[in-house]
């Protein structure tokens, strides 16, 4: 009489072990492909039951103890009941992702499976062992429950087949039709194997040794269903590689089980084999997660790219609208300014001082609006890279002097000391006079505007083939945080400047203009309330020492550093 260890060294055990590992790996691979899918969840349930049924079927042909044997065969019938029920449900769910609500007949089938499976564990199905051959159980006394089992299982299989055939007939989608063809092919192979080796061979040739290969016979059906459900993702090279190496590891480990020489080694190595199956499942799950994350990342990237294109289109439309609106606004504002100027300077005739004052305010407001419009137009040109420059050689000292003279009346109105100092050199640079004047006007205007008392000083010096222009004031000053962002678009520098009107575009535009001249602009301040200094450097063509300009020789020391528009 063969012992258990000897029986476990047989070839059927090798085939059954490999089949069991393959079934489990396929079941979890399909499940991890889409955990929310009803078909995928049902397939995992079916795979686990197939593995359990395959294992117990094999054990039924190697266990020699009649007491253990009767319970093993009852377990075979138990898992066979749930196997047939899961087959029915698999055919019902395939290829649906969601089933809501469950049909009443499925609940009836579930109740029948529960009752029948419990019945198989009682003597009403298998009462006792009646025959053994060579120590192997070959016959048992059947109870009346065997007919109930047969009827329920038959109904499940016939019901599942009917559902599947109806789905094939009603299929209109090419994708579903392809899925059904795969399942039909796998079902045909499995049915043929069962018919040949589990029915015809035992019944007519008295060959029962093939019955223990039930797991192998089920494998074609399981593989075809798995491929039908997730054929696209199962083609992922990374997933296939992981499954292959996991399967290869399991085969290698299973050889250790086959080479065991005693029962203790069989138990230990079988435990290791089972642990590796669990570990393989976890590895495959992690790979599926990585693949899912990659697919999701690609999807999000595509969505972001599409959204970015739409944003660029909207931004372009916004810029075009701003440009159009600015151009349309600029002309009527200029007309309003001209009429206000005519009234203020008396060209329209004598008017009262009150009317002159109103006209003067209208003119000043029009000037600010025109400047705002010009700034908006400049920003759009900068964003589109369409700001044009017309460079010419200019004496910076004379140029800065002419610009600064425009602001002397404003500084005088505020009782500020206003000075311009050069180092005595004639500094020739290539600049766009109109745009560079815009930069200087902005810096000097800010210096005067943000200084309530004290002085504003403009210095021009030469250093290392470049000119340095510094506009300093003793006004409000800036914090380091304000300095770090003051040249950004629409930044004005904190609470201290909110009392003074501005758009936050002047310095942003100034920076773009200076950089177009291959120069640099920056701000310095020792803190709020301690004044500011804005500095510009631009390349020089040449310099000649021939004159010095100082509009206030008494002012020798520049004030501590300007604040921002």
Describe this structure as you would to a colleague:
The longest helix has 82 residues, at 263-344. The protein has 16 helices and ten strands. The protein folds into three domains: 35-230, no CATH class; 306-384; 392-545, Heat Shock Protein 90 (2-Layer Sandwich). The protein has 565 residues and is an alpha+beta fold. It has a five-stranded mixed β-sheet. Helix 3 runs antiparallel to helix 8.
Number of helices: 16
Order of helices and strands: HHHHHEEHHHHHHEHHEEHEEHHEEE
Poorly predicted tracts of residues: 1-9, 547-565
Fraction in beta strands: 5-15%
Count of discrete domains = 3
- Rg over CA atoms, rounded to whole Å, is 45 Å
Strand order of the largest sheet: 4-6-7-9-8
Q: What summary fits the major beta sheet? A: 5 strands, mixed
